[in-house]
Structure formats: structure tokens, C-alpha cells
Amino acid sequence: MKRSTLFAAQLIFTCLVCAFMLVPVLLSLLAGLTRNYFQGLSSGLTFDWLVQVWQAYSPTVWLSLQLAVACALCVCVIGVPAAYALVRMNNRFSRAFEELMVLPVAMPGLASALALLLTYGHLGGFRGSWLFILVGHVLFTLPFLVRPVMAVMQRQNLPTLEDAAASLGAGPLRRFFTVVVPNCRAGILAGVLMVVTLSLGEFNLTWMLHTPMTKTLPVGLADSYASARLEVASAYTLLFLLMIVPLLIALQAISARLSRGDQR
Questions:
Q1: Nearest 5 degrees, angle CA 236-CA 242-CA 244?
Q2: Helix boundaries (H) for 34-91
Q3: Distance of alpha carbon 225 from alpha carbon 232, whole angstroms
Q4: Residues 6+ apart with CB under 8 A from 54
Q5: Are residues 35 and 139 in the same domain?
Q6: For residue range 252-263, what is the model confidence (pLDDT) as tens digits?
Q7: What is the DSSP string of 116-173?
Q8: Are residues 30 and 68 in the same domain?
Q9: pTM
Q10: C-alpha to C-alpha distances, 78 to 55, 162, 201, nearest whole angstrom
């Protein structure tokens, strides 16, 4: 009896916490589908606000997707070899380098953006390009791929596998691409999804680095909140969640798969 009462109390508390977090989100999404938010559902539902948002802000969506994909590719090219080198070295220098790599995450995004502006802001063509924002996103998201890949590499028996491949005549590059990468693909995929999600949602750093021609989705979202109707801003939020939620679900599925693999 006491156990069932405790379970019921925990369930009620959990439901209340979920409602506290989710009800504001649901109301915001509903506002983006309501013809007039101040009249409520009695005014009817419509997709007109979503169409208006897409017509006005679709360039920010495409730029955000372009940045996220480019960021994931750059972070993979840099991060996977870096994680492999750090795992293989495993000394005081590698641990210090790993901590320094996390520094852009520990610093406020505005401070990191200011540092980039002071260093590269005088390069006019680069400053006005989306590549300038890409550099900031790579610096910010790199640890989120390196850490999961390092964790997977440390769990795998890579030295033994590499020695076996070397005994068959495989060189360093061939061992890296045919032994190391395939055995770490789950960690790489999880890191890539995390990088894409963070790049799509990054605001503080992007807000400092963007120009009127390089607005991303979060920056456009802030503009819509400041200058448009509540319904437009809510419809923009709905569009943003339609992009982010599938990535989060995929990330959770990969994490669950990795956990099952560890238990085996």
C-alpha cells in the first residue's frame, strides 16, 4: 500500500513537472496556428501564418541548414582525427589540449564572437560571408563531437585491431579508415547529430557574427519576436521545432542503441 502510494505521488509530481515545461510550448505552437490569438480557438485555425513566415524568412532556414551541414562536415574532418590522436597519445599534453578545446564552450558565446571579430573582422569579404559564422560554429561544436568519439574509441579494443590490420600489411591511413572509423561510427553519428542540432539552434555567437545578409534561423526568430505579430513569431517557433525535434529524437535513439551495446 505504501509502495503504491509513493508511486502515485511520484507519477503525479512527474506529470506536473512535464506540464509545467510543455504547456507553454504547446500554447506557443497553438498561437502559430490560430487565426487570432487574442480571440482564441473561436477565431479558427489556419496555416496562413506558417506560409507568411516561410515567404519572409525561408532564406534564414536554408542558410541555417547550409551552416549546420557544413559545420558537421568540418567538425568530422577535424574532430575524428583529433579524437584518435588524443586517445593514442593519452598523456599530460593530450589532456591539457582536451581541456583547452572545451574553452569555447565554457566561455559565453558573445565573448567568443568578440574574439573572432577582433581577430578577423578587418577581412571585409570574409566578415560578410557565412563562412565567418561557420568558423564560430566549428569552434563551439567541436568538443561535442570529439568527446563522444573519444569515449567510443576508449571502449573499443583498437590497439589490438590495429595490430592485426598492420600484420596483414595495412598502413596507418588504411588502418584509420578501415578499422578505426568503422568501429567508431556510432559515436561519430551521435556527435554529428549533436553538432547539427547545436548549429541550428546557436544564437548568442551567431547574433554577434551575422550581417543583414547572413541571418540564420535563430536570429530571424529573434527578429520576428521583436517586430512581428505574436502569431508570426509563434509560427516561426513551430517551424523551428519541426526542424529540431526529429534531430533530437534521432539523437535519443542513437544514445539508447549505444547504451544497449554497452550492456551487451
A1: 100
A2: 48-89
A3: 8
A4: 61, 239
A5: no
A6: 777 677 656 555
A7: HHHHHTT-HHHHTSHHHHHHHHHHHHHHHHHHHHHHHHHHTTHHHHHHHHHHTT--HH
A8: no
A9: 0.81
A10: 36, 21, 21
Q: pLDDT-derived band of residue 264, with 50, 70 and 90 as boundaries? A: low
30-39's contacts with Cβ under 8 Å and 24+ in sequence apart are: 30/234, 31/230, 31/231, 31/234, 32/231, 32/232, 32/233, 32/234, 32/235, 32/236, 32/237, 32/238, 33/235, 33/238, 34/231, 36/231, 37/230, 37/231, 37/234
Residue 23 burial (CB count, 10 A): 10
Grouping H, G, I as helix, E, B as strand and the rest as coil, residue 34 is strand
In total, how many domains does the chain have? 2
Cell of 178: 578501415
- Cα separation, 55 vs 173, in Å, equals 47
Judgement on whether residues 199 and 150 belong to the same structural domain of the protein: yes
pLDDT at site 2? 56
Asked if 162 and 255 sit in the same domain, the reply is yes
Task: From residue 109, give the alpha-carbon distance in Å to each of 64, 115, 117.
Answer: 17, 10, 12
Residue type, 209: L
Q: Are residues 22 and 150 in the same domain?
A: no
If we measure between CA atoms, which residue out of 146, 118, 106, 156 comes closest to residue 261? Answer: 156
Give the CA angle between residues 183, 141, 176 to the nearest 5°.
25
For the stretch 236-252, pLDDT in tens is 888 888 888 887 787 77
